[in-house]
Task: structure prediction
Amino acid sequence: MTTKSLALLVLFVAVNAFGRQAPVFRGELVTGERVSLNDYIKPEKGTLVCFWATWCVPCMEELRMINEKLKADPNLPINVITVNVDSSETSSDVRPTISQQNLPFPVILDPKKEIFTRYQQGQALPFSALVNDKGELAKTFEGLNENLFQEINAALAKSKTITHAE
Amino acid sequence: MPNKKILIAAISMLALFSGNSQAENLEESVGAIHVTSQDHLLIASKKDPSDPNAEPSQQLMHENRLGAESGPYRLGIHFTNKFFLNNQGAANSSNNKPFTLEKKHLTAEFSNWDIQLGDSYQEIGKGIALSLYQDDVFGLNNTLEGASLKYRPKGFEVLGFAGRLNAINSPVAVFAFENPLKNRNVWLMGSSVGGNPWDGAKITGHYLLALSTPTNYSGFDKTWTTVGTTIQQNDLFPAGEGYAEVNALISHVRVAGRDTVLPTGWGAYSSISWAPAPWKVKWEGKLYEDYVFEFRRPPTLEEDIVETTNTSRVVGSKWAADYRINAGQGTVGASYLVAYDRMTQAPIHHWVANSKYKVSSLIELEGKSGYRTSPNRNWLAHASLKGKLKTFKGQWVELGYRKQYGRIKLDLLPATEDRNAIDFSYVFSERISTSLGYEYLPENAPEFGKHFANVSTSLRFGALAAKAMLGQTSGGTLCSAGICRQVPAFTGAQVETTYSF
Result:
């Protein structure tokens, strides 16, 4: 047991010495196509991965806020993709919700939360992850954040990928 | 010895938490191999609600998911550690589980192929036939330990899987469910074939064979065979779509050496929705008849208010409508569920109304109320109101009130349930928030207490999140992702941390 624990200790320290690459995932869009995170990573652009569920009211609020911001400033260097984590109990609400809310973003279905649990252990919603153009995890956001875009800009600038000023 | 193990575990945690922040050291990534880690620690001290004079139970529960990925390949393990921190007699010290390797997997994802070796989550259709999933609230984590192969060229999909059911042994949760595989082994083999025969349509057929045997392997004494089909049609009509699923379950049991075929079980679900913005209208129907198989999570159509124990012999329909006000200013909605519980031979009616509205740039209100009744058996009136008031930049106050009042008729002994709960939260920033909670249950017997108060706080720094809670909760119905269960009252403290990226 002691040897096992010490081995794990070494492994934990080693984990911290490596970089924080965003977990690459593949999934099925609500439209049926198969996509990968890498399909959305573009040069000089950040990719915001937003996790949501139809029953999560703050998630809807966050997606509306992001949509309005991008409409107001289409030149923002951000790609947005969303991952829906509704279980079978509420999954029949996904497409109607997308229609009702006029969500323009790609929606990847993750009913078994296989993608979600690779990004966040606690599975709290809303949750978003910002990936820079190198595929690195620049920042995560838990809960509805009204300063989202200021923090996105700061995180991307810190990762020395994009120097876009708001 | 237990203290030495705890010390080593604690040092391991400190080493992990002392790591660099998220965006640093990115240049040190090693080749094309990326290592990930998700760590979860929960320390709980809780009193036994049936024996308030007994020493509280103190547990340290920890789990970690370590993974490595390179291109299309992913390798991962999930292990847990569980210790009782105070000696409550020899029985508890023997319940320590210093190290348990819970799950392991090797996954490869290619353009048209998915290959999974080891532990994987599987679900067929809407979870009526099979659902192996994880839920951290109840400590549920059921996987298929074996192999799974999926081939999905454009417009076509074939899936095959086989293996043994693997339930988590040491869940990290305060209200963890008992291991459903206690003293039994369950083996599964399944397949499904699906395609897109025309625009917007997806049709699948599936088959599942499950075999159960006691752990001493005296032979398979329970077998289940399931066949079923699903049909999904998008754009059924403008802004509309539909879904239908039917499953037949054939069960054999062996009792005292004699094989018995049980009545064929049927599990069906259907939904039709129409969502021309700003409206959303949906109808759902369920029919479960003699469908007795443990490893599923079928749609219940119920609100997250009541514990749904019957998913084997019940039929129901639910209508729901939702309207967005002023392009996102708010929503109003209503739903009506009518069902017939064949076990209790009683009808069920549940009306619900809900609304959310942004009164101003500073104030938001959200309310929900409903009435559920099973005539001559029980009824429940419920209501909730939540308000959010913005204070300073990035800060706000949330105040919530929940009320449940009802009569439960258990045989000839009616009981009244009266629950009142107030929650007050202040969010200082995305990193720090604090909450106060108070519950008043006037109908509780004096020995169980009528007043329950608690305080909690949550902190977040980079990849590390921590929550602490002190006080009491009254228990009752706890819901997570459509699963509702009765949980006992809690008195004590909890500290929980997660570190993930």
The radius of gyration of chain A is 17 Å. Strands of chain A lie at 26-29, 34-36, 46-52, 78-84, 107-109, 127-131, 137-142. Confidence is low (pLDDT under 50) at residues 13-19, 162-166 of chain A. Chain A touches chain B through 65 residues (CB under 8 Å).
